[in-house]
Amino acid sequence: MRVSSFYLTTPIYYASGEPHIGHAYSTILADVLARYRRRAGEDVLFLTGTDEHGQKIQEAAAAQGLGPLELCDLMAGRFEEAWRTLGISHDRFIRTTEAEHIAVVRAFLERLRENGFIYASEYTGWYSVGQERYFTEKEIGPDRVDPIAGGPVERIREKNWFFRMSLFQDRLIRHIEENPEWIVPRTRRNEVLGFLGQPLEDLSISRPRSRIHWGIPLPWDSDQVTYVWVDALINYVTASGAVDPAASPGERGFGDSPRPSRWPADLHLMGKDIITTHAVYWPTLLMGAGLPLPRKILAHGWWIVGDTKMSKSIGNVVDPLDLIDRFGTDAVRWYLMREMPTGQDASYTPERFLTRYDELRNIFGNLVHRTLSMIRRYRDGVVPHGRTDGLAPETSDAVAGYRRGLEGHRLHDGFAAAMDLARTANGYIETREPWTLARRSDGAEELDDTLATLAHTLATLASLFEPVAPRKARELAHRLGLYDVPGFDELAATDVRGMPVTVGPPLFPRVEP
Ligand code: MSP
Protein backbone atom coordinates (compact mmCIF):
# COMPACT_ATOMS: atom_id res chain seq x y z
CA MET A 1 0.00 0.00 0.00
CA ARG A 2 1.34 3.43 -0.93
CA VAL A 3 1.29 5.81 2.01
CA SER A 4 0.30 9.30 0.94
CA SER A 5 2.58 12.07 2.04
CA PHE A 6 1.91 15.55 3.33
CA TYR A 7 4.40 18.43 3.52
CA LEU A 8 3.31 21.47 5.50
CA THR A 9 5.09 24.61 6.63
CA THR A 10 4.76 27.52 9.06
CA PRO A 11 6.27 30.92 8.36
CA ILE A 12 9.82 31.08 9.64
CA TYR A 13 9.87 33.61 12.46
CA TYR A 14 12.16 36.60 12.69
CA ALA A 15 14.94 35.83 15.10
CA SER A 16 14.78 39.44 16.31
CA GLY A 17 12.00 39.06 18.88
CA GLU A 18 10.66 36.64 21.46
CA PRO A 19 8.02 34.10 20.46
CA HIS A 20 4.52 35.32 21.35
CA ILE A 21 1.00 34.04 21.08
CA GLY A 22 0.71 35.04 17.39
CA HIS A 23 3.70 32.90 16.43
CA ALA A 24 2.41 30.19 18.72
CA TYR A 25 -0.93 30.24 16.92
CA SER A 26 0.59 29.67 13.45
CA THR A 27 2.77 26.91 14.79
CA ILE A 28 0.07 25.15 16.81
CA LEU A 29 -2.30 25.31 13.85
CA ALA A 30 0.33 23.58 11.75
CA ASP A 31 1.04 21.10 14.52
CA VAL A 32 -2.62 20.18 14.84
CA LEU A 33 -2.87 19.55 11.11
CA ALA A 34 0.40 17.57 11.12
CA ARG A 35 -0.81 15.39 13.97
CA TYR A 36 -4.19 14.95 12.33
CA ARG A 37 -2.56 13.81 9.09
CA ARG A 38 -0.28 11.41 10.93
CA ARG A 39 -3.25 9.94 12.75
CA ALA A 40 -4.89 9.46 9.37
CA GLY A 41 -1.84 7.39 8.41
CA GLU A 42 -0.03 9.91 6.18
CA ASP A 43 3.72 10.38 5.96
CA VAL A 44 4.10 13.95 7.21
CA LEU A 45 6.94 16.45 6.86
CA PHE A 46 6.26 19.41 9.14
CA LEU A 47 8.68 22.32 8.78
CA THR A 48 9.19 25.39 10.93
CA GLY A 49 12.18 27.56 11.77
CA THR A 50 13.69 31.02 12.04
CA ASP A 51 14.29 33.82 9.55
CA GLU A 52 17.72 35.12 10.42
CA HIS A 53 18.96 37.61 7.83
CA GLY A 54 18.18 41.23 7.00
CA GLN A 55 18.17 44.70 8.39
CA LYS A 56 15.80 43.97 11.25
CA ILE A 57 18.09 41.31 12.71
CA GLN A 58 21.20 43.37 12.01
CA GLU A 59 19.71 46.32 13.90
CA ALA A 60 18.26 44.26 16.77
CA ALA A 61 21.64 42.61 17.32
CA ALA A 62 23.50 45.92 17.23
CA ALA A 63 21.05 47.40 19.74
CA GLN A 64 21.82 44.55 22.14
CA GLY A 65 25.55 44.71 21.55
CA LEU A 66 25.56 41.26 19.96
CA GLY A 67 26.81 39.94 16.67
CA PRO A 68 23.89 39.02 14.37
CA LEU A 69 24.62 35.31 14.51
CA GLU A 70 24.95 35.46 18.27
CA LEU A 71 21.48 36.96 18.51
CA CYS A 72 20.10 34.37 16.08
CA ASP A 73 21.62 31.47 18.01
CA LEU A 74 20.02 32.79 21.13
CA MET A 75 16.62 33.40 19.59
CA ALA A 76 16.49 30.19 17.55
CA GLY A 77 17.05 28.44 20.88
CA ARG A 78 14.17 30.40 22.41
CA PHE A 79 11.81 29.43 19.62
CA GLU A 80 12.84 25.79 19.82
CA GLU A 81 12.32 25.82 23.54
CA ALA A 82 8.89 27.44 23.21
CA TRP A 83 7.87 24.83 20.64
CA ARG A 84 9.05 22.04 22.90
CA THR A 85 6.96 23.45 25.73
CA LEU A 86 3.96 23.77 23.45
CA GLY A 87 4.26 20.16 22.31
CA ILE A 88 5.07 21.03 18.70
CA SER A 89 5.95 17.94 16.67
CA HIS A 90 7.86 19.51 13.78
CA ASP A 91 10.13 17.21 11.81
CA ARG A 92 12.59 19.92 10.87
CA PHE A 93 13.59 23.28 12.34
CA ILE A 94 15.32 25.27 9.63
CA ARG A 95 17.52 28.31 10.17
CA THR A 96 18.28 30.52 7.19
CA THR A 97 21.89 30.85 8.33
CA GLU A 98 22.46 27.12 7.73
CA ALA A 99 25.05 26.33 5.07
CA GLU A 100 22.65 24.10 3.18
CA HIS A 101 20.04 26.83 2.91
CA ILE A 102 22.58 29.44 1.84
CA ALA A 103 23.75 27.14 -0.95
CA VAL A 104 20.18 26.49 -2.12
CA VAL A 105 19.38 30.22 -2.16
CA ARG A 106 22.42 30.89 -4.32
CA ALA A 107 21.58 28.03 -6.68
CA PHE A 108 18.00 29.28 -6.92
CA LEU A 109 19.09 32.83 -7.76
CA GLU A 110 21.61 31.58 -10.30
CA ARG A 111 18.85 29.62 -11.94
CA LEU A 112 16.61 32.69 -12.16
CA ARG A 113 19.48 34.54 -13.76
CA GLU A 114 20.26 31.74 -16.25
CA ASN A 115 16.60 31.78 -17.18
CA GLY A 116 16.90 35.47 -18.06
CA PHE A 117 14.71 36.90 -15.30
CA ILE A 118 17.28 39.04 -13.44
CA TYR A 119 18.55 42.55 -14.21
CA ALA A 120 20.16 45.45 -12.31
CA SER A 121 18.58 48.85 -11.87
CA GLU A 122 18.45 51.91 -9.70
CA TYR A 123 15.73 51.75 -7.08
CA THR A 124 13.97 54.56 -5.34
CA GLY A 125 11.29 53.75 -2.83
CA TRP A 126 9.94 53.66 0.69
CA TYR A 127 11.29 50.87 2.86
CA SER A 128 9.87 49.57 6.12
CA VAL A 129 12.41 47.74 8.28
CA GLY A 130 9.56 46.41 10.40
CA GLN A 131 8.01 44.57 7.46
CA GLU A 132 11.32 44.21 5.59
CA ARG A 133 9.77 45.40 2.34
CA TYR A 134 9.15 48.37 0.10
CA PHE A 135 5.79 50.04 -0.14
CA THR A 136 4.41 52.30 -2.84
CA GLU A 137 3.65 55.97 -2.29
CA LYS A 138 -0.03 55.07 -2.36
CA GLU A 139 0.35 52.31 0.24
CA ILE A 140 2.16 54.49 2.77
CA GLY A 141 -0.41 57.28 2.42
CA PRO A 142 0.02 60.91 3.44
CA ASP A 143 1.36 59.98 6.92
CA ARG A 144 4.14 57.91 5.39
CA VAL A 145 3.84 54.86 7.62
CA ASP A 146 3.94 51.18 6.77
CA PRO A 147 0.36 50.13 6.09
CA ILE A 148 0.59 46.85 8.05
CA ALA A 149 1.89 47.90 11.47
CA GLY A 150 1.96 51.67 11.15
CA GLY A 151 5.74 51.73 11.67
CA PRO A 152 8.20 54.15 10.05
CA VAL A 153 9.35 53.94 6.44
CA GLU A 154 12.55 55.32 5.01
CA ARG A 155 13.28 56.80 1.61
CA ILE A 156 15.89 54.73 -0.16
CA ARG A 157 17.73 55.21 -3.45
CA GLU A 158 20.24 52.56 -4.46
CA LYS A 159 21.30 49.91 -6.94
CA ASN A 160 19.30 46.67 -6.65
CA TRP A 161 19.02 43.54 -8.71
CA PHE A 162 15.49 42.81 -9.88
CA PHE A 163 13.44 39.74 -10.68
CA ARG A 164 11.08 40.13 -13.63
CA MET A 165 8.02 39.35 -11.55
CA SER A 166 5.82 41.35 -13.90
CA LEU A 167 6.25 38.72 -16.62
CA PHE A 168 4.36 36.20 -14.49
CA GLN A 169 1.34 38.27 -13.61
CA ASP A 170 -1.04 36.72 -16.15
CA ARG A 171 0.08 33.20 -15.41
CA LEU A 172 -0.44 33.75 -11.70
CA ILE A 173 -3.90 35.23 -12.17
CA ARG A 174 -4.85 32.28 -14.35
CA HIS A 175 -3.58 29.86 -11.73
CA ILE A 176 -5.63 31.51 -9.00
CA GLU A 177 -8.74 31.61 -11.15
CA GLU A 178 -8.43 28.02 -12.29
CA ASN A 179 -7.80 26.78 -8.73
CA PRO A 180 -10.42 28.44 -6.56
CA GLU A 181 -9.24 26.54 -3.47
CA TRP A 182 -5.57 27.40 -3.91
CA ILE A 183 -5.71 30.35 -1.53
CA VAL A 184 -8.03 29.92 1.44
CA PRO A 185 -10.08 31.48 2.87
CA ARG A 186 -11.88 33.12 -0.03
CA THR A 187 -11.50 36.65 1.38
CA ARG A 188 -7.73 36.30 1.10
CA ARG A 189 -8.00 34.94 -2.41
CA ASN A 190 -10.07 37.97 -3.40
CA GLU A 191 -7.56 40.25 -1.76
CA VAL A 192 -4.71 38.73 -3.78
CA LEU A 193 -6.73 38.95 -7.00
CA GLY A 194 -7.46 42.58 -6.12
CA PHE A 195 -3.75 43.22 -5.69
CA LEU A 196 -3.12 41.57 -9.06
CA GLY A 197 -5.67 43.89 -10.62
CA GLN A 198 -2.89 46.52 -10.71
CA PRO A 199 0.12 46.03 -12.94
CA LEU A 200 2.61 43.86 -11.06
CA GLU A 201 6.01 45.50 -10.64
CA ASP A 202 9.33 43.70 -10.78
CA LEU A 203 10.71 42.56 -7.45
CA SER A 204 13.90 43.95 -6.02
CA ILE A 205 15.84 40.90 -4.83
CA SER A 206 19.02 42.43 -3.42
CA ARG A 207 20.37 45.16 -1.18
CA PRO A 208 23.79 46.80 -1.30
CA ARG A 209 26.10 45.26 1.21
CA SER A 210 27.29 48.70 2.20
CA ARG A 211 23.87 49.26 3.80
CA ILE A 212 23.00 45.74 4.90
CA HIS A 213 25.80 43.33 5.46
CA TRP A 214 23.75 40.60 7.14
CA GLY A 215 22.51 38.55 4.22
CA ILE A 216 23.44 35.99 1.59
CA PRO A 217 25.74 37.52 -1.06
CA LEU A 218 24.47 37.19 -4.63
CA PRO A 219 26.46 34.55 -6.49
CA TRP A 220 27.35 37.00 -9.29
CA ASP A 221 27.71 40.26 -7.33
CA SER A 222 29.21 39.99 -3.87
CA ASP A 223 28.55 43.69 -3.22
CA GLN A 224 24.87 42.84 -2.94
CA VAL A 225 23.07 40.57 -0.48
CA THR A 226 19.84 38.70 -1.12
CA TYR A 227 16.63 40.45 -0.11
CA VAL A 228 15.54 38.75 3.09
CA TRP A 229 12.07 37.77 1.86
CA VAL A 230 13.51 35.96 -1.16
CA ASP A 231 16.03 34.25 1.11
CA ALA A 232 13.30 33.31 3.60
CA LEU A 233 10.72 31.96 1.14
CA ILE A 234 13.28 29.63 -0.40
CA ASN A 235 13.53 27.82 2.95
CA TYR A 236 10.48 25.81 1.93
CA VAL A 237 12.38 24.41 -1.03
CA THR A 238 15.61 23.88 0.93
CA ALA A 239 13.88 21.63 3.44
CA SER A 240 12.09 19.67 0.72
CA GLY A 241 15.32 18.41 -0.81
CA ALA A 242 14.19 19.47 -4.31
CA VAL A 243 17.40 21.35 -5.07
CA ASP A 244 20.89 19.93 -4.89
CA PRO A 245 23.27 22.89 -4.99
CA ALA A 246 26.29 20.58 -5.20
CA ALA A 247 25.18 19.07 -8.53
CA SER A 248 26.28 20.49 -11.87
CA PRO A 249 24.11 23.46 -12.95
CA GLY A 250 21.90 21.41 -15.30
CA GLU A 251 21.27 18.70 -12.70
CA ARG A 252 20.32 20.72 -9.67
CA GLY A 253 16.65 19.86 -9.72
CA PHE A 254 15.06 22.83 -11.49
CA GLY A 255 12.82 22.71 -14.53
CA ASP A 256 13.51 19.61 -16.57
CA SER A 257 15.78 17.90 -14.02
CA PRO A 258 13.38 17.29 -11.09
CA ARG A 259 14.77 15.36 -8.13
CA PRO A 260 12.71 13.03 -6.00
CA SER A 261 11.79 15.23 -3.03
CA ARG A 262 8.94 16.47 -0.84
CA TRP A 263 8.36 19.42 -3.17
CA PRO A 264 5.77 20.84 -3.86
CA ALA A 265 4.55 21.62 -0.37
CA ASP A 266 0.98 20.51 0.27
CA LEU A 267 0.24 23.44 2.54
CA HIS A 268 1.85 26.76 3.39
CA LEU A 269 0.33 28.23 6.54
CA MET A 270 0.76 31.87 7.53
CA GLY A 271 -0.94 34.90 8.98
CA LYS A 272 -2.88 37.21 6.69
CA ASP A 273 -0.20 39.89 7.08
CA ILE A 274 2.16 37.93 4.85
CA ILE A 275 -0.21 36.64 2.21
CA THR A 276 1.23 38.84 -0.57
CA THR A 277 4.75 37.53 -0.17
CA HIS A 278 3.45 33.94 -0.14
CA ALA A 279 0.80 34.19 -2.83
CA VAL A 280 2.54 36.60 -5.23
CA TYR A 281 6.30 36.78 -4.72
CA TRP A 282 6.75 33.11 -3.96
CA PRO A 283 4.76 31.51 -6.78
CA THR A 284 6.28 33.84 -9.37
CA LEU A 285 9.79 33.08 -8.09
CA LEU A 286 8.99 29.38 -8.39
CA MET A 287 7.70 29.87 -11.93
CA GLY A 288 10.92 31.70 -12.77
CA ALA A 289 13.04 28.86 -11.40
CA GLY A 290 10.92 26.19 -13.09
CA LEU A 291 9.59 24.57 -9.93
CA PRO A 292 5.97 23.54 -9.30
CA LEU A 293 3.77 25.72 -7.10
CA PRO A 294 2.69 24.73 -3.57
CA ARG A 295 -0.68 22.96 -3.51
CA LYS A 296 -2.39 25.23 -1.03
CA ILE A 297 -1.92 28.49 0.85
CA LEU A 298 -3.90 29.02 4.03
CA ALA A 299 -3.85 32.44 5.66
CA HIS A 300 -5.16 32.72 9.19
CA GLY A 301 -6.42 35.76 11.04
CA TRP A 302 -4.89 37.87 13.75
CA TRP A 303 -5.08 37.64 17.48
CA ILE A 304 -5.97 40.97 18.92
CA VAL A 305 -6.12 41.86 22.59
CA GLY A 306 -9.49 43.18 23.69
CA ASP A 307 -10.07 45.35 20.65
CA THR A 308 -6.52 46.50 19.98
CA LYS A 309 -3.82 44.90 17.93
CA MET A 310 -1.17 42.97 19.81
CA SER A 311 2.07 44.84 19.52
CA LYS A 312 5.38 45.12 21.26
CA SER A 313 5.22 48.91 21.29
CA ILE A 314 1.77 48.95 22.93
CA GLY A 315 3.07 46.40 25.42
CA ASN A 316 0.01 44.13 25.30
CA VAL A 317 1.69 41.06 23.85
CA VAL A 318 0.34 37.87 25.38
CA ASP A 319 3.07 35.43 26.32
CA PRO A 320 1.72 31.91 25.87
CA LEU A 321 4.27 30.60 28.34
CA ASP A 322 2.64 32.46 31.23
CA LEU A 323 -0.69 30.79 30.47
CA ILE A 324 0.98 27.42 30.19
CA ASP A 325 2.45 27.70 33.66
CA ARG A 326 -1.01 27.97 35.10
CA PHE A 327 -3.24 25.95 32.81
CA GLY A 328 -0.93 23.56 30.99
CA THR A 329 0.01 23.32 27.35
CA ASP A 330 -3.04 21.51 26.09
CA ALA A 331 -5.42 24.08 27.54
CA VAL A 332 -3.61 26.86 25.65
CA ARG A 333 -3.66 24.84 22.44
CA TRP A 334 -7.35 24.12 22.92
CA TYR A 335 -8.19 27.77 23.50
CA LEU A 336 -6.29 28.95 20.42
CA MET A 337 -7.79 26.34 18.11
CA ARG A 338 -11.32 26.33 19.46
CA GLU A 339 -11.75 30.06 19.92
CA MET A 340 -10.50 31.44 16.60
CA PRO A 341 -12.62 30.55 13.58
CA THR A 342 -9.82 29.44 11.25
CA GLY A 343 -9.06 32.31 8.88
CA GLN A 344 -10.77 35.05 10.87
CA ASP A 345 -9.51 37.41 13.56
CA ALA A 346 -10.21 36.72 17.20
CA SER A 347 -9.75 38.66 20.36
CA TYR A 348 -7.78 37.30 23.28
CA THR A 349 -9.47 37.94 26.61
CA PRO A 350 -8.77 36.24 29.93
CA GLU A 351 -12.53 35.68 30.37
CA ARG A 352 -12.84 33.74 27.10
CA PHE A 353 -9.75 31.80 28.00
CA LEU A 354 -11.38 30.72 31.25
CA THR A 355 -14.63 29.85 29.50
CA ARG A 356 -12.77 27.55 27.13
CA TYR A 357 -10.84 26.03 29.99
CA ASP A 358 -14.06 25.36 31.87
CA GLU A 359 -15.42 23.61 28.81
CA LEU A 360 -12.44 21.25 28.84
CA ARG A 361 -12.72 20.72 32.56
CA ASN A 362 -16.49 20.45 32.98
CA ILE A 363 -17.36 18.52 29.86
CA PHE A 364 -14.41 16.46 28.70
CA GLY A 365 -12.52 16.19 31.99
CA ASN A 366 -15.67 15.48 33.91
CA LEU A 367 -16.76 12.74 31.53
CA VAL A 368 -13.39 11.05 31.91
CA HIS A 369 -13.48 11.26 35.67
CA ARG A 370 -17.04 10.04 36.03
CA THR A 371 -16.58 7.15 33.65
CA LEU A 372 -13.36 5.89 35.17
CA SER A 373 -14.67 6.31 38.72
CA MET A 374 -17.80 4.30 37.93
CA ILE A 375 -15.74 1.52 36.36
CA ARG A 376 -13.70 1.42 39.53
CA ARG A 377 -16.69 1.52 41.83
CA TYR A 378 -19.02 -0.87 40.03
CA ARG A 379 -16.65 -3.17 38.16
CA ASP A 380 -13.47 -3.30 40.23
CA GLY A 381 -11.64 -1.04 37.80
CA VAL A 382 -11.96 -3.31 34.77
CA VAL A 383 -13.95 -2.31 31.69
CA PRO A 384 -16.82 -4.83 31.56
CA HIS A 385 -17.53 -7.03 28.54
CA GLY A 386 -20.76 -5.26 27.62
CA ARG A 387 -21.89 -3.88 24.27
CA THR A 388 -19.91 -0.84 23.16
CA ASP A 389 -22.34 0.53 20.61
CA GLY A 390 -24.65 2.52 22.87
CA LEU A 391 -23.51 5.79 21.24
CA ALA A 392 -22.63 4.42 17.81
CA PRO A 393 -24.69 6.82 15.64
CA GLU A 394 -23.65 9.85 17.71
CA THR A 395 -20.03 8.79 17.50
CA SER A 396 -20.00 8.31 13.77
CA ASP A 397 -21.69 11.69 13.28
CA ALA A 398 -19.13 13.34 15.53
CA VAL A 399 -16.19 11.70 13.76
CA ALA A 400 -17.58 12.75 10.37
CA GLY A 401 -18.10 16.34 11.54
CA TYR A 402 -14.65 16.36 13.06
CA ARG A 403 -12.96 15.12 9.90
CA ARG A 404 -14.92 17.56 7.74
CA GLY A 405 -13.75 20.37 10.01
CA LEU A 406 -10.09 19.41 10.00
CA GLU A 407 -9.93 18.64 6.31
CA GLY A 408 -11.93 21.71 5.33
CA HIS A 409 -9.68 24.02 7.39
CA ARG A 410 -12.42 24.79 9.89
CA LEU A 411 -10.66 23.48 12.94
CA HIS A 412 -12.93 25.25 15.39
CA ASP A 413 -15.89 23.32 13.94
CA GLY A 414 -14.00 20.05 13.98
CA PHE A 415 -13.11 20.40 17.64
CA ALA A 416 -16.60 21.57 18.50
CA ALA A 417 -17.83 18.26 17.08
CA ALA A 418 -15.40 16.39 19.34
CA MET A 419 -16.56 18.35 22.38
CA ASP A 420 -20.18 17.70 21.44
CA LEU A 421 -19.51 13.99 21.58
CA ALA A 422 -18.21 14.39 25.13
CA ARG A 423 -21.31 16.43 25.97
CA THR A 424 -23.54 13.73 24.48
CA ALA A 425 -21.76 11.06 26.49
CA ASN A 426 -22.38 13.06 29.68
CA GLY A 427 -26.05 13.16 28.72
CA TYR A 428 -25.96 9.40 28.19
CA ILE A 429 -24.75 8.94 31.77
CA GLU A 430 -27.68 11.05 32.99
CA THR A 431 -30.25 9.02 31.08
CA ARG A 432 -28.78 5.58 31.83
CA GLU A 433 -28.23 6.36 35.53
CA PRO A 434 -25.52 3.75 36.19
CA TRP A 435 -25.92 4.34 39.95
CA THR A 436 -29.54 3.16 39.70
CA LEU A 437 -28.58 0.20 37.52
CA ALA A 438 -25.98 -0.81 40.09
CA ARG A 439 -28.67 -1.04 42.77
CA ARG A 440 -31.14 -2.97 40.67
CA SER A 441 -30.96 -6.76 40.82
CA ASP A 442 -31.66 -6.97 37.06
CA GLY A 443 -29.38 -4.04 36.11
CA ALA A 444 -26.04 -5.83 35.64
CA GLU A 445 -26.15 -6.34 31.90
CA GLU A 446 -27.36 -2.84 31.20
CA LEU A 447 -24.65 -1.46 33.46
CA ASP A 448 -22.02 -3.48 31.58
CA ASP A 449 -23.28 -2.05 28.30
CA THR A 450 -23.32 1.49 29.66
CA LEU A 451 -19.80 1.37 31.06
CA ALA A 452 -18.37 -0.43 28.01
CA THR A 453 -19.99 2.15 25.73
CA LEU A 454 -18.58 5.02 27.79
CA ALA A 455 -15.08 3.52 27.88
CA HIS A 456 -15.19 3.01 24.13
CA THR A 457 -16.31 6.61 23.67
CA LEU A 458 -13.35 7.75 25.76
CA ALA A 459 -10.99 5.87 23.44
CA THR A 460 -12.60 7.66 20.48
CA LEU A 461 -12.29 11.00 22.24
CA ALA A 462 -8.62 10.37 22.98
CA SER A 463 -8.11 9.94 19.26
CA LEU A 464 -10.12 13.05 18.30
CA PHE A 465 -8.47 15.24 20.92
CA GLU A 466 -4.92 14.06 20.27
CA PRO A 467 -4.09 16.62 17.56
CA VAL A 468 -5.08 19.52 19.79
CA ALA A 469 -4.40 18.13 23.27
CA PRO A 470 -1.69 15.51 22.71
CA ARG A 471 -0.52 15.16 26.29
CA LYS A 472 -3.98 14.79 27.81
CA ALA A 473 -5.03 12.41 25.06
CA ARG A 474 -2.06 10.17 25.73
CA GLU A 475 -2.73 10.33 29.44
CA LEU A 476 -6.33 9.31 28.81
CA ALA A 477 -5.26 6.40 26.60
CA HIS A 478 -2.95 5.18 29.36
CA ARG A 479 -5.69 5.43 31.95
CA LEU A 480 -7.84 3.26 29.71
CA GLY A 481 -5.09 0.66 29.70
CA LEU A 482 -4.13 1.40 26.08
CA TYR A 483 -0.52 1.58 25.09
CA ASP A 484 -1.10 4.64 22.88
CA VAL A 485 -3.83 6.79 21.37
CA PRO A 486 -5.52 4.83 18.58
CA GLY A 487 -5.25 6.16 15.00
CA PHE A 488 -8.50 6.85 13.14
CA ASP A 489 -8.25 3.59 11.22
CA GLU A 490 -7.58 1.65 14.40
CA LEU A 491 -10.64 2.92 16.25
CA ALA A 492 -13.04 0.30 14.96
CA ALA A 493 -10.67 -2.45 16.05
CA THR A 494 -9.82 -0.88 19.42
CA ASP A 495 -11.38 -2.90 22.21
CA VAL A 496 -11.00 -1.58 25.72
CA ARG A 497 -13.11 -4.28 27.34
CA GLY A 498 -11.22 -6.25 29.94
CA MET A 499 -8.73 -3.40 30.36
CA PRO A 500 -7.80 -2.31 33.87
CA VAL A 501 -8.37 1.44 34.15
CA THR A 502 -6.74 4.07 36.35
CA VAL A 503 -8.86 6.89 37.74
CA GLY A 504 -6.07 9.32 38.62
CA PRO A 505 -6.39 13.04 39.34
CA PRO A 506 -8.67 15.23 37.17
CA LEU A 507 -7.30 15.64 33.63
CA PHE A 508 -7.96 19.38 33.87
CA PRO A 509 -7.65 20.50 37.46
CA ARG A 510 -9.40 23.48 38.94
CA VAL A 511 -7.23 26.60 38.63
CA GLU A 512 -7.70 29.31 41.21
CA PRO A 513 -8.40 32.63 39.48
N1 MSP B 1 9.91 36.13 8.84
C1 MSP B 1 8.64 36.44 8.29
C2 MSP B 1 8.03 35.22 7.61
C3 MSP B 1 8.86 34.59 6.54
S1 MSP B 1 8.12 33.16 5.92
C4 MSP B 1 9.03 32.75 4.59
C5 MSP B 1 7.70 36.93 9.37
N2 MSP B 1 8.02 36.59 10.63
S2 MSP B 1 7.25 37.02 11.96
O1 MSP B 1 8.10 36.67 13.07
O2 MSP B 1 6.80 38.37 11.88
O3 MSP B 1 6.05 36.06 12.09
C6 MSP B 1 4.99 36.21 11.25
C7 MSP B 1 3.87 35.26 11.56
O4 MSP B 1 3.55 35.21 12.94
C8 MSP B 1 2.60 35.79 10.92
O5 MSP B 1 2.44 35.42 9.61
C9 MSP B 1 1.60 35.09 11.71
O6 MSP B 1 1.64 33.78 11.21
C10 MSP B 1 2.16 35.12 13.09
N3 MSP B 1 1.68 36.26 13.84
C11 MSP B 1 2.41 37.25 14.41
N4 MSP B 1 1.57 38.03 15.16
C12 MSP B 1 0.32 37.56 15.09
C13 MSP B 1 -0.89 37.81 15.78
N5 MSP B 1 -1.06 38.80 16.62
N6 MSP B 1 -1.94 36.95 15.56
C14 MSP B 1 -1.80 35.83 14.78
N7 MSP B 1 -0.68 35.58 14.15
C15 MSP B 1 0.33 36.56 14.05
O7 MSP B 1 6.73 37.58 9.05
Total separate domains: 2
What is the CATH architecture term of the largest domain? Answer: 3-Layer(aba) Sandwich
Work out the number of β strands: 16
Please report which band the strand proportion falls in: under 5%, 5-15%, 15-25%, 25-35%, 35-45% or over 45%: 15-25%
Q: Any ligands, ions or cofactors bound here, and which?
A: 5'-O-[(L-methionyl)-sulphamoyl]adenosine
Strand order of the largest sheet: 3-2-1-12-13-7
User: Helicity, in percent?
Assistant: 40-55%
Q: What profile does the largest beta sheet have?
A: 6 strands, parallel
Low-confidence stretches: none
CA-CA gap between termini: 52 Å
CATH fold-level label of the largest domain: Rossmann fold
Tell me the CATH superfamily of the largest domain: HUPs
* Shape label: elongated
Mean pLDDT: 95
- The CATH class name of the largest domain reads Alpha Beta
As a whole number of angstroms, the C-alpha radius of gyration is 26 Å
Features:
513 residues, alpha/beta, Rossmann fold, Isoleucyl-tRNA Synthetase, Domain 1, 4-stranded antiparallel β-sheet, 18 helices, binds 5'-O-[(L-methionyl)-sulphamoyl]adenosine
What does this structure look like?
With 513 residues, the chain is of the alpha/beta class. The chain has two domains: 5-321, Rossmann fold, CATH 3.40.50.620; 353-490, Isoleucyl-tRNA Synthetase, Domain 1. Helices cover 46% and strands 15% of the residues. The chain is built from 18 helices and 16 strands. The protein has helices spanning 21-39, 55-63, 68-85, 99-114, 137-140, 169-178, 186-195, 228-233, 235-238, 275-289, 320-327, 329-339, 350-379, 392-407, 411-432, 434-439, 444-465, 470-479; strands at 5-14, 43-51, 92-95, 118-128, 133-135, 154-163, 183-184, 203-204, 206-208, 217-218, 221-226, 267-271, 297-300, 303-305, 308-309, 346-348. The chain starts with a strand and ends in a 34-residue tail after the last helix. The model has no long low-confidence stretch (mean pLDDT 95). The protein binds 5'-O-[(L-methionyl)-sulphamoyl]adenosine (MSP).
